[in-house]
Amino acid sequence: MTDAVDPPKARRPNTRLEEVARAAGVSKSTVSRVINGEPYVSLKAREAVHQAITRLGYSPNQAARTLAGSRANCIALVVSEQGSRVLADPFFAGVLRGVHAELAGKRVQLVLMMSKEGDEQDLVNYLCGGHVDGVLVISLHGQDPLPRTLADAGLPTVVGGRPLGAGGVPYVDSDNFNGAMEAARYLSSLGRRRVATIAGPRDMAVGMDRLSGWKRGMSQARLPVDLVAYGDFTPESGAAAMEELLGREPELDAVFVAADIMALGALQTLHAHGKRVPEDVAVVGFDDLMIASTAVPPLTTIRQDVEQLGRTMTWRLMAELAGEENLPPFLLLPTSMVKRTSA
Amino acid sequence: MTDAVDPPKARRPNTRLEEVARAAGVSKSTVSRVINGEPYVSLKAREAVHQAITRLGYSPNQAARTLAGSRANCIALVVSEQGSRVLADPFFAGVLRGVHAELAGKRVQLVLMMSKEGDEQDLVNYLCGGHVDGVLVISLHGQDPLPRTLADAGLPTVVGGRPLGAGGVPYVDSDNFNGAMEAARYLSSLGRRRVATIAGPRDMAVGMDRLSGWKRGMSQARLPVDLVAYGDFTPESGAAAMEELLGREPELDAVFVAADIMALGALQTLHAHGKRVPEDVAVVGFDDLMIASTAVPPLTTIRQDVEQLGRTMTWRLMAELAGEENLPPFLLLPTSMVKRTSA
DNA sequence: CCAAAACCTGGGAGCGCTCCCAGAACGTCA
DNA sequence: TGACGTTCTGGGAGCGCTCCCAGGTTTTGG
Question: A105 to chain B, minimum CA–CA distance in Å?
Fold first, then answer.
């Protein structure tokens, strides 16, 4: 049923800048100025061009713009794949939504790249090759040298989540420290005295920051900080850590779990041990994923606004690209407590 | 501490094709041939070029290639934002991972676009403007005309999830029908006789296919198909639908929920009504999200391999771009049952 | 009233590559 | 030995745009 004509790809029949110029009765240069919002174009010319553009359905050829101009009108979002995939899913989707929301209206494309083992050099070559104007890095694991490398190469870069090994590279992060501190304080205000924590991995800033915040909150409440177990942001690790904690201190009456996803596992263990939540053990999570509200019992948690993280990263990058000066080297987004049933 | 020199962006100091040519002692044309894997290059020249490339860290300028050549070396992944965001998160991340995995090694960039209300025309203009070689569409809602439009414009397009309003556009989908049928059969094999279903929205193929499959499975087991309620892929809607079902038939002893995320809500309602799962009511979900295994009780569910979906879509698109003929118009990926505790 | 400044416009070089064409080098067969 | 392939190579036009420059047309101000 195919036409059987024209088997090879038909050549691009696209309207070009020149045709718009002809249709509007002006020169290519003027059309270019209008498109790029430059000054020094008469209202009359400007309107004629806009009309011609809509009439012809013209869409500028990005490749040509990039080649001729000095910028690519394109930023990259780089995701390190080696990080915990489990953490990545809702986090990543949220960030992406934020990035996209912030980019809306700007004529900037988003290209997505995931760094794999071994192809780091390719990635760096590509990114530094002038194909993108800037880079957003979601660094899920610890000492990733990528942000440093990119920044050193002079490519505007913003990292999502405090990078452990990239001093000086601008980043945006949730205020994990204060969020965790609030959790500890809240638990103490409830009258809980044997408060444990299930922390994230030691090689991730997010894990360490939440642990530090919890410790600070505990100290302020004059509570001991001995009950610490570690997980890796999976439900299984949360269950195991809870098991360990219960073994070390059967009388514990509260636990701050550094991620909702681990809290799910902890809840299971608690249930298996016949502990009632929150009567026997109060539980506070972190993140406020959708699953927090459907957990049994619904999870009290520290909410971080992941979409806002994406937005802020993008804003910071675009501001830098726009040449703004004295931008903050890092930005911390406030967290908020969401009280449900578990604590 | 900045250098205070060179405030504007430094001009691209990138190695160009010509430099590689000079370094390798050949012409631009030959380097180009090597890069594009064309025949008619002597082994000697080929090796010299490869050496020069690695030595100089050369990375071809995509913009120039696109402009000069006939293809963009770039495909787009388009996501409709109006779809249920809730459904989107893990689904989207999984698809993306698959797409990326399939693209690995190919020199093809992935640009991400989300369609918003009102900017459809812009989107179409852009996509059809020769900036991308093909499009992957994740169509989350029903009658989206986008795939049709793109396909009609001659742009190779593959849809993820059966599109409702785009007859003839190639698509890849999980075998929702057979998966749901298996769920119904399984429930019947357990001896359950009053089996309900919580279906997805009527305007989404995924919802309808799973409902059809359930009906077919029920009919084969000579069971009535009257207990149908609808949700919208949110936990809340699942809870409400379960409530409705229980109101209509307090004696129901099983329910097939067309999405794990809704099953979570259903489980809550069941719990609130004092129904034990699976003793009083058996529950089977669909998707096998990570949360299925941490639900209380752990959810028996129909697993769909979302990453494989992404891979297959990409494979299908790339095959078409490579000029392969007689490709299947659609592809269905098998599902599998994961037995846990809830049924 | 005339010079200077501000505004507006078109022409054209060139971004880095691909791809066509012409031609060189090396056969191979009548 | 020359005519014809086959394999390899370099030259150069041009992809569609931006941006610089030169020049024209207004407005401003002394």
Answer: 10
Residue nearest to nucleotide C12 (CA to C1'): A29
Which residues 94-133 on chain A approach chain B with CB closer than 8 angstroms? 94, 96-97, 100, 104, 109-114, 116, 122, 125-126, 128-131
Residue A329 burial by Cβ neighbours in a 10 Å radius (0-12, 13-18, 19+)? exposed
Q: In terms of Cα–Cα distance, which of B146, B160, B143, B141 is closest to B85?
A: B141
The CATH superfamily assigned to A17-58 is lambda repressor-like DNA-binding domains (1.10.260.40)
**CATH 3.40.50.261 is right for the domain spanning B176-303:** no
Within residues 22-41 of protein chain A, the ones with CB less than 7 A from nucleic strand C are 25-30, 33, 39-41
Checking if the pLDDT of B11 tops 80, the result is: no
In whole angstroms, give the CA distance from residue B216 to residue B219. Answer: 5
Chain A residue with minimum CA distance to B60: A129
**Model pLDDT, residue B81:** 66
Residue A10 has phi, psi (to 5 degrees) of: -70, 145
Q: What residues pair up with A262 in beta bridges, in sequence order?
A: none
Tens-digit pLDDT profile for residues B302-314: 999 999 999 999 9
Tell me the per-residue pLDDT of B69-106, one tens digit each, with 9 for 90 and over. Answer: 878 888 999 987 665 564 567 888 889 889 999 998 78
Q: What are phi and psi of A173, to 5 degrees?
A: -150, 160
Instruction: Considering chain B, tell me which residue range(s) the CATH 3.40.50.2300 domain(s) occupy.
Output: 74-173+307-331, 176-303
Rounded-to-integer distance, Cα B158 and Cα A207, Å: 40
Residues with CB under 7 A from strand D: A 12, 14, 16-18, 28-29, 32, 35-36, 58, 60-61, 64-65, 67-71; B 25-30, 33, 39-45, 64, 67-68
CA distance B313 to B332: 11
Q: Residue B67's closest chain A neighbor by CA?
A: A63
Question: Which nt has its C1' nearest the CA of A20?
Answer: D16
Give B100-141 pLDDT, tens digit per residue: 999 987 878 899 888 776 677 778 878 887 789 999 999 767
Give pTM, 2 decimals: 0.87
Confidence band for A82, pLDDT divided at 50, 70 and 90: low
